[in-house]
Amino acid sequence: MSSAVVDHVASADQQEQATLRCARQALAAVGSRRYPTQTPAEQAAYLRRLGLHIRVLRTARQLSQQELAERAGMDRTYVSRLERGQHNVTVLVLVRLAGALRVAGGELLP
Question: What is the pTM (predicted TM-score) of this model?
Answer without folding.
Answer: 0.65
